[in-house]
Amino acid sequence: MRARPRAARLILFGVHPALCYLPGDRLTLAELGAARLDGHVVEVGECFAPADTVESAEMRAAGLRTIVPARTAACGPTAAWVHGAGDGPPVVHHVRRSSIRRFRPALPGNVAYHEGRIDEDDLLTIAGVPVATELAAATDLLFWVGADAAAEGWLRGLLQVSAGLGESLQERLERMPRRPGRRAAIETLRRIRTS
C-alpha cells in the first residue's frame, strides 16, 4: 500500500458547506426530498449534494458528521464506503472507539458500536470526520467475514479500489500471530485474492 505523508494522514480536504446538505440543517428532510425528486440534489449517505457534484471520500465522510459521535471513528463497511468501495452506504454504519477511556455513546438505530479501540496510526480525518484507514477497515472486514454476510463484499470492493492493499493486509496478518481468528482470516484473504 502506498505510504501517505504524515500531514495527509492527519487531515484531508473538507467539503464546502454549500455542497453538503444535512436534513434539518438549512433545509428540512421534506424540502431535500422534493429537491431530489426535481433532480437538484442526490443522496450521498446521510447528506444531500448538488446533482452535478462529484462524489468523493470527502463528500461521503461529510455526510457522516451526525452519526459518528465524538471519540469514535467510522470503521468496517462505513470506512470502506468512505474510501470508495460500493455505490451506496452500508445499511448499518459501524463506529469504533478512538478514545482511551471506555464509554457508551448514544447512537441512532442504524449505527453499530465496536468497543475495541482503534489505534491512532489507523485513523484519518476526512472532512472533519475520523475514519479508519483503508488498511484498518480491511482488517476489520477480514475478521468479520464469518460473522457478517456483507463483510466479504465490502472487503472485495475495498481491495479493488485500493492498489496494494492486499499485500499490506497480508503483511499485517503476519505481524499478529496471536490474534484469535488469524488462521481463518489468512485463508479468507487467500481465497478472495485468488478468485
Q: Strand percentage, roughly? A: 5-15%
Helix % is: 25-40%
What profile does the largest beta sheet have? 3 strands, mixed
**Uncertain parts:** 1-12
- Order of strands in the sheet with most strands: 3-4-5
β-strand number: 7
What gap, in angstroms, lies between the N and C termini? 20 Å
Shape: globular
Structural class: alpha+beta
Our Rg estimate from Cα atoms comes to 17 Å
Describe the structure.
It is a single chain. 37% of the residues lie in helices and 14% in strands. It is built from 8 helices and 7 strands. A hairpin with a 2-residue loop joins strand 6 and strand 7. Helix 4 (76-82) runs antiparallel to helix 5 (134-144), helix 4 (76-82) packs parallel to helix 6 and helix 7 packs antiparallel against helix 8 (182-194). It is globular, with a radius of gyration of 17 Å. Residues 1-12 have low confidence and may be disordered.
Short note summarizing the structure:
With 195 residues, this protein is an alpha+beta fold. 37% of the residues lie in helices and 14% in strands. The strands form three sheets. The protein has a three-stranded mixed β-sheet. A two-stranded antiparallel ribbon has the order 1-2.
